[in-house]
Amino acid sequence: MSSDTAEPYIRIENVTKTFGGFVAIEDVSLTIERGELFSLLGGSGCGKTTLLRMLAGFEMPTSGRILIDGIDVAGIPPYQRPVNMMFQSYALFPHMTVESNIGFGLRQEGIAKAEIKERVNAMLDLVQLGRFGGRKPHQLSGGQRQRVALARALIKQPKLLLLDEPLAALDKKLREQTQFELVNIQERVGITFIVVTHDQSEAMTLSSRMAVMNEGRIVQVGTPSEVYEYPGSRFVADFIGSVNLIEGRVLRIEGDNAVIEAEAAGGELLAECGSGLAAGEPVAIAVRPEKLSIGKDAPPGDENALRGVIEEIAYQGDISIYQVRLPSGTIMRVTAPNRERSARRSLTWEDEVYLSWRPDASVLLTS
Q1: Which of these three, 193, 212, 238, is where a domain ends?
Q2: CATH of the domain at 354
Q3: Long-range contacts made by residues 14-23, C-beta under 8 angstroms, separation at least 24?
Q4: Among the listed residues 321, 311, 254, 331, the one whose alpha carbon sits nearest the alpha carbon of residue 290
């Protein structure tokens, strides 16, 4: 990673991209440091792949500019950029061996056979496929094919690697395993990675930083923990993981906390707040399901407390998810670790329970 005073490795300045009358990217500005593993996260149609394709040179900005390592890349074709792109489909040549697939780009450049062999062997070792070099793609698992595509993208030693939904074709367990492998490989080669994904947990696992996109705009940038713990808007809070949103308005400020009148809660709630909030301002209290405690006993007096009835329980092995209906009809979602076997579980359907959380476990949202 570069120092705070160094120029960002990638600088996207006020970039807009339109297709006819449709605005795919609207006035996006973003900086990415050298050596980061950065994710662009968003739902279908949010513009993340269009932004990736503009970095690669497959699309040109309608306005604004993109600089890579201080150079404005406007007008530079894809094959002359210090960039390689790994596609979701992997696009391996089915008639070639693993070794031939990985070394294809070097052969196209006329590199000597001895150097190609040396670099291919180094890549095979990097992605832990040393004994699979003679196989064809159809003889490999999905995870192995993904690593061949990654090796082929890395062998040309790009300064920037773009990955478009690189793990989407893998099943859940293999995808989780491969996420860690991808992080380890990126740390070893030190190349800047930009990953496009719609999977929140994937972005959280992979990224040193991430940008959340919506309708062609970047709505928040930060580390995974910053984006999850301190969402900047209702959209981000709801898009990243699960969240309980309780609408209300500010009654007054008491020290570090705001007193919120919340009709859905049937009274007042406390939430930690920053400066700038005023009495009467509409807000939403965002509290993650894992921040809530659930039990039959009343909580301490310094915590927010709500009473409700357990309406649904979803057992997921390591955790259970409880849906609790408040007297107002609002449903609160709670996740709790299963420290005991389910046969010993003390909470069940139709139980009356207390939900509680500390004021500093809430985030106040004004937008």
Answers
A1: 238
A2: 2.40.50.100
A3: 14/63, 14/64, 14/65, 15/51, 15/54, 15/61, 15/63, 15/64, 15/65, 15/66, 16/61, 16/62, 16/63, 16/64, 17/47, 17/50, 17/51, 17/54, 17/59, 17/61, 17/62, 18/62, 23/216
A4: 321
Give the residue numbers spanning the domain of 341: 243-365
Each residue's pLDDT tens digit, 38-75: 999 999 899 999 999 999 999 999 999 999 999 999 98
- Would you mind telling me the total number of residues written for the chain in this entry? 367
What is the DSSP pairing of strand 209-214 with strand 37-41? Answer: parallel
From 304, 302, 307, 344, select the one nearest 325 (Cα to Cα). 307
pTM given for the model: 0.86
**Residue 160: pLDDT over 60:** yes
Residue ending a domain, choose from 206, 238, 270: 238
The pLDDT of residue 3 is 43
Selection from 318, 321, 312, 322 nearest residue 340 by Cα? 318
Do 213 and 288 share a domain, yes or no?
Answer: no
Please give the residue that has the higher pLDDT: either 59 or 165: 59
Task: Decide which of 343 and 82 is more confident.
Answer: 82
**pLDDT per position as a tens digit, 210-267:** 999 999 999 999 999 999 999 999 999 999 989 999 999 999 888 888 899 998 888 8
Provide the sign of the torsion angle of the four alpha carbons 54, 57, 62, 63, taken in this order. positive
Q: Are residues 198 and 303 in the same domain?
A: no
CA 15 to chain centre: 22
Report how far residue 238's alpha carbon sits from residue 125's, in angstroms, rounded to the nearest whole number. 41
Output b/e per residue, 313-348; b: 16+ Cβ within 10 A: beeeeeebebbbebeeebebbbbbeeeeeeeeeebe
Q: 224: buried, middle or exposed (CB in 10 Å: 19+, 13-18, 0-12)?
A: buried
For 58, the 3-state DSSP assignment is: coil
